[in-house]
């Protein structure tokens, strides 16, 4: 009976609001050349089915690349405001550059929610909620996992030293490992090796050679895990050194399936797109609000136990 | 306006007629760019109408984007007219933004000092480009490719070494905000810089003797040298001008957005060259106009930002930009041919 009432109320609200206030949403995310965002987009597009059923629309705005990220994102926020949307779901990796644009949007009466990055700035931004992972919490989960699976000395590799979110991840790995009784070392390589698989592989090989006590490596990007995997193989240590990484990629999943990689830490980008768009539209249409803020969409550990379901998600474009 | 442009380029080839003529209008280097821009604008007005492409906010949106490109594109076009190319802009832009961010932000030096140091640094890069190009036989594409990577690498390394970070934040005093990085009527300050520079550069290229030199050097450097034009000195100054304008764009950006990042802005290289070529500047030199480059920059701005106002799948955006630009350039070629045949007819008659 209660359920019926709720459903009727929702339906009435939907009908009434779809005329007056159909939520037009803009989703602002990173480069369309970066496969990570395709998964966020997939989640948002599935949420858009509901938004459109209620008479609203979804417009996805993406930067071309990351060369001028903060300014590009601020421009996209301004663009969404100019388009007269009712709600903006945006990433917030560059608060200095984006904050004025976000505040201007809110002042113009637009509802804003955050996803993927910038959770620490939720209060300052005035946004409704944040859907993403907490880098430190994700790191702790990764460090604990490796230690509980028997690692004694975990090396966490940072590809761009000084980057706040990367440092937070490795700090988490270190604390998680220590908590579970293992040792952790943070390897900071020169920033010019960023994206350089061959160079990074050589650097990691040198570390593994120099300190044979290292029995687990955690990378913060999937390309870096490719580099570590090659280094471990080169040294013939596939059986003795465990490999883990942040984020998913086809090669990462293949290695987990084959047993040459222990795990990957997923921040569930599908949820970031799906939840940010659907909750924002519901807030505009029906005045609902998720009481939990921020909402953490990760960490979710992918390992041998759930690899098959993950592969099904990859096929559907949702993992 | 078009008349004076025509005069510039026809000085050597044919005597100009006195009154207004349709032939002269479409013969100007800016005509093709102008019609290309109008077509692109109409297309996006049609498909983006629903999302307020035609509002003041919509206009400000693509003009804001175009202004950063435009400030750099005009001096890049000068170099192209003079037969050279500068692609180091992609590194000078972030280097300038980081330099101001580090000096006046991290080290809290006075703003005017940070800005002066930034402009001097950029002038230094321009001087190196100019000296290398004029003193060696290495093409400017290769020289500035080298400085692109060198400056980009130095920016990254110095940022990491000095402030242990590849990003920097900068909170500017009010006067600096008012001059470089605020908004008037929804338009960023860089838009007004761009408009002012268009006027200055128009007089430089089309009304001053130096403008004639630029065309002469690009047309035939040997004859220009024989005619007594200081070819090397002119080129060095053009390279310095290009770097300093790029630094100005970088300063506007870091003050506007309160932050800078050290990543090399490779897209800026494409943007400036596209704006110039769509604007009717010939890649092999000797031909072009300030007004044309302005139209080219606006076309790029409309195409780049306009896609987001439409319902088109975002994965297709690069494809559409490519096709649109191709259409714009082909229109240019058509207009140039049309112009040539018109003048031939007139000469015969």
Can I get a quick summary?
The complex is a heterodimer of chains A (319) and B (349). With 319 residues, chain A is an alpha/beta fold. Chain A has helices at residues 2-20, 35-53, 69-82, 95-107, 122-125, 135-148, 164-179, 197-210, 222-234, 250-258, 269-286, 307-316; strands at residues 24-29, 57-62, 87-91, 111-115, 130-132, 153-158, 183-188, 216-219, 242-246, 263-266, 295-296, 300-302.
Structure notes:
Chain B: GO terms for molecular function: transmembrane transporter activity. Chain B: One of its GO terms (cellular component) is plasma membrane. Chain B: It is found in: Cell membrane. Chain B: The chain crosses the membrane at residues 30-49, 61-81, 112-132, 138-163, 184-205, 236-257, 269-296, 316-335. Chain B: Its main location: membrane. Chain A: One of its GO terms (molecular function) is carbohydrate binding. The complex is a heterodimer of chains A (319) and B (349). With 319 residues, chain A is an alpha/beta fold. Chain A folds into two domains: 21-133 and 268-298, Response regulator (Rossmann fold), CATH 3.40.50; 135-266, Rossmann fold (3-Layer(aba) Sandwich), CATH 3.40.50. Helix content of chain A is 51%, strand content 17%. A six-stranded parallel sheet of chain A has the order 2-1-3-4-5-11, sandwiched between helices. In chain A, strand 8 (216-219), helix 9 (222-234) and strand 9 form a beta-alpha-beta unit. The two termini of chain A are 38 Å apart. The model of chain A is unreliable at 12-20 (pLDDT under 50). By secondary structure, chain B is mostly helical. Chain B has one domain (28-337): ABC transporter involved in vitamin B12 uptake, BtuC, CATH 1.10.3470. Chain B has helices spanning 2-10, 22-27, 29-48, 56-81, 89-106, 111-135, 140-163, 174-180, 189-206, 209-219, 221-226, 231-257, 266-278, 290-306, 317-348, and strands spanning 167-169, 183-184, 187-188, 259-261. In chain B, strands 1-4 form a two-stranded antiparallel sheet. A two-stranded antiparallel sheet of chain B has the order 2-3. In chain B, helix 5 runs parallel beside helix 7 (140-163). Chain B is globular. The model of chain B is unreliable at 1-19 (pLDDT under 50). Chains A and B meet through strand 2, helix 3 and helix 4 of A and helix 4, helix 7, helix 12 and helix 13 of B.
